[in-house]
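Handoff note, outgoing to incoming analyst
You'll be picking up this chain. Sequence as last confirmed:
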Amino acid sequence: MSIFMAHVVIFVLQIVQLVICIFIVLDFYGSMKLRVPYLSVRKHVLLHLYREFNFSSESVVYDLGAGHGRVLSYLKKLSPTITAVGVEFAPLPWFIGTMRQFFSQKEQRITLLYGDAQKVLLTPATHVFMYLSQKLTNKLAEKCVKELKPGTVVITCDFFIENKEPIKVVDCSVPTERLGRKLYVYQY
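Most recent structure output, in case you need it:
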């Protein structure tokens, strides 16, 4: 390899490192701004979630705080006819999810939007999922009241919506897990 090619390779690697560092800084900033740590839905919760949503072929599912889209990918795999839309504020999980979708099978693709869930219009949703902090869950619940159509099902994991009675609370407890213990099911 020539010296010129070696310099080109080193330059490209440095650019990649810079991009990764920028994503990490933006991810940290996003987490600190929203005060929401990265919470991954545990595998044992996913089947409970699927059962509670009870999809039809016209279902439009929104995941607010979708991370890399694992929940929506799971739901889409079990119900290929649903429309699945995720919203993620942290750039690193969003980027990872976008790359995963790029390489996934076309019929199992989901839409991952980068941005603030408080600024995304929820009116198309028939189903909404949230696994966020208690504070952000309550803030987005106010948005749900304003934008969701009557009959829309909202499910939150571990954090309940204050001032709204769930129609069902699903116990997903596993003795070895501290997260993913309850699903709160609401109907708007």
